[in-house]
Amino acid sequence: MRQTIAEKIFSNHSGKKVYADDYIIVDLDLVMAHDTTCAWAIDPFYQIAKKVWDNSKIFISFDHAYPAPNTQMAKLQTKIRKFAKDQDIPITTDGVCHQLLAERFINPGNLILGADSHTPTGGGLGALTIGVGSTDAAIAMATGKCWFKIPQTIRVNIEGDLPKGTFAKDVILMVAKKFGPEGANYKVLEYGGNTVRSLNVSSRLTITNMSAEMGAKAAIVEPDEKTEKYLKENDRLHAFNKNELKSDFDAKYEDVVEFNVKDLVPLIAQPPDIDNVAVVKEIEKKKIRVDQVFIGSCTNCRIEDLDIVYKIWKGRKLNKNTRVIITPASKKVYLQALIKGYLKFFTEMGSVIGIPGCGPCLGRHGGVLDDNEICVSTSNRNFTGRMGSPRALIYLASPATAASTAITGLITDPRNFL
Amino acid sequence: MNWIFGDNINTDLITPGRYNITTDPKELAKIAFIEYRPEFTNNVKKNDLIIAGSNFGCGSSRETAPIALQVCGIKAIIAKSFARIFYRNCMNQGLLAIIADTKMISSNDKLKIDLKNKRLINLTRRKIIKIEIPDLMIKLHQEGGIVIYIRKYGLKSIPKLFGDN
Known about the structure:
heterodimer; A: 14 helices; B: seven-stranded mixed sheet; globular
């Protein structure tokens, strides 16, 4: 029987040919945990093991609140540092875990476990990267293994050229509107079609990242020459077989969903749900005053995103009543922005450059919202209370829409400035 | 009693990120639904149930969400459906996450969970509701979670957990 790419990767890591709905135990290529989930993995880990299975295959990142904004967070980090030292695992503080996994670790065909819900991001490189909780991460750190029920795959074909002012974020908001917060629960979302093929890895990561918001267990884009280029740019060309590492033409999908982007316009997810998606041009009419613009997170703060912000802001002024926080996704992105002169430019424009990491996305530091404040964010969650006060409102949009909003102080269609 | 919730109750509502910075389960129990349902922690009693709509536990992978509810005394969460990481975390913690049609249940209904026959008996309304729960989850609930299970039977015993599924 023919297989999907997900079934192939599960097969390669379990030593037998497997299909959706099979229960299997797999050998993992890497286990990731961060400065919150790792803290909860330590006690269960020592309940069942003394030493990690392979310290070179465990990646710990401090990103959710680093440097520590308060004593409680400092305590969690101290606890993790001790664990990491005892187990001889380095701790990385260079940015959001998912961005670092993409830049440094994920190779096409890998099977990786991450103790964070946005782990599906890595599927943008043609790997299976799956989010779990701390206990599963602890067992994986002890054994290098994890059990799975192989999910069904939904194929999402996206065709057409992206119209002016629309980007990967608008594409995934269009998809989220259709699927809703549960539409891909337990499933693999496999993205294809000429739109996805034409996107670079940076944009593909935006799409796979937000698949978590629809409940997906994993999201994947079959690797191709664009993936090769990305790996090369990140100094780790890894050979992979493009002909092998894709779904067979007659593989069994649970569903195939088709989209065409030829008429796509800039979109925005209104609070508090991911599928509460509206057209920016319509929202613009409501003249919604924005207190904070956040350009950051594992969804949208790679250098390509900052290129767009620069393009929109050049020769213009920002609204004085709107504060802008830009948090590069990683140290690499920070340095790229530095070399391109963006950090100076953005700072002179009046925005604040945050420390590479999660920034204010999860409301723990770096731009927490007050009651009744409104934020336009390039991140992935607009839940009530996500970024601070439960009485604050979060709108999710592309970096272009966020940058345009920073100019006017009102939610603004980026086509006004492109 | 039964704590009634709607659809898409996310982990940011259960244990909000700003408070979710402790590894002390007792401290964690104090933050359950701290903003969304402030009366919850003061009034929740041992063996209370959570009754919810679809996609309960969506959002973050934080295992603090099921742990907080468990430490509060919640015996089971009965929902129309669960988000996958939350569901798996419940399994690992030995907390019952039961799938059932919950729309006719109200807060004062007396409910009896019959795991053996996979049904929920609403004693107040004299109704029997079919439930969905894998044997794996029942087993881990009886053992007190996967960590205790592994300590008892060893790491090699994990495949046995889903042999029957």
